[in-house]
Amino acid sequence: MLFDCAVIGLGLIGSAAARYLSTTGLTTLALGPAEPDHWETHKGVFASHYDAGRITRILDKDLVWATLAARSIAEYPVIEAKSGIQFHHPVGLLRIGAVADDPEDSLDQTAAVGQALQVDFTELNPDEMAQHFPFLQLPSTTGGLWERGDAGAINPRALVQAQLKLAATQGAMVVRETAVSLERNGAVYTIVSDQGQRYQATKVLLAAGAWSGSLLARPLALDRQLRTVALAQVSAQEVERLRALPSLIYRLDRDPEVSSVYSNPPLPYPDGRWCLKIGGMLHNHYRAETTAAIGEWFRKGGDPQEVAALRRILLSILPDLQVTQWGSKPCVITNTATDYPYIDQLDENLFVATGGCGAAAKSSNEIGRLGALLTEKGTWTDALPKDKFAASFMADEAAFGPARRLYR
Q1: Count of CB atoms within 10 A of residue 76's CB?
Q2: Could you read off the pLDDT of 141-188 as tens digits, one per residue?
Q3: Which long-range contacts (CB under 8 A, 24 or more apart) does 181-185 make?
Q4: 38: Cβ–Cβ under 8 A, 6 or more apart, which residues?
Q5: What is the spatial distance between Cα 47 and Cα 56, in angstroms, rounded to a whole number?
Q6: pLDDT, tens digit, for every residue of 58-112?
């Protein structure tokens, strides 16, 4: 069968793109592996949506990112209603920063973007922060932006499941295999999978995250940062005590190990546990030099030193937190040279939608929609500026500055 279009990669962005393409009347192949059953022995592709918690919010100091989020969040109820799968937890979000203007993360600049997009949020001074969130222990110099409405958390696993369920219902062929090669012969692309199957399509949308460059002769400029998140399992009583806790984004002031953290309040995990999750940005993080290094990172479980730093910070923010068991998860962040996702045409009928920059889970529906629209139409038709999403190619590792710690 010759498909009109094929989506390679079925994470958060690819699954959204497959759903949108399946509504266009184009025959659509959605190709990507399922989550591996046994991480420690899996030799194939990994992804970072294998989790139950990601923050979601509109507030951002960048108007483009805020717009992508606002459009995506507006679609959450539609996706949930049509799929019957619940993934959205509107628990609110608190963005914490220094009261004084910080050029790296200005609360004033973020508030201005929120006002422009008519976001439901409140600016809080230090006294108001303590009044609303007495269980948080923060420096007296910190203020916050408290976003309500639909801000809070999403379950990324469930969102992918919902998108693929709808794509299949709408006629897409969902194939749980990994693309290992991509070649064009005239007007037709041939995709070979890890199962030895061959699929042909007239158009291809590449949405394979950190693995996106592995199918291209000219690799994309992608900085693959290796991260580890900490999970704090809590009791039902602790879940109730922290019921008013929103998701958090907190830029730390002069912490020796971590520049900023984010967290979700306790959320249900598939095995019945309730876990509070915290992740962050190390000053000196690992970067993957190869896709093989990413696989090794997932199999080994990440960095215990990063987990220790995150545990320390979480207990400093929530000093009364009662943890029944600690856990962790490795993940990978795919940064681009522009700090925006690549949504672009790479070759004749070959398109890309990838590079979440650590901020795309909440906005994945819109990023996937824009990738699908570009693939369908062959031209950029959205009001957002096309140049923001132009793809860059890797000429040199130095394109991303100091190498940090390479993980080979």
Answers
A1: 20
A2: 889 999 999 999 999 999 999 999 999 999 999 999 999 999 999 999
A3: 181/215, 182/8, 182/206, 182/215, 182/216, 184/347, 184/348, 184/350
A4: none
A5: 19
A6: 999 999 999 999 999 999 999 999 999 999 999 999 999 876 555 666 788 999 9
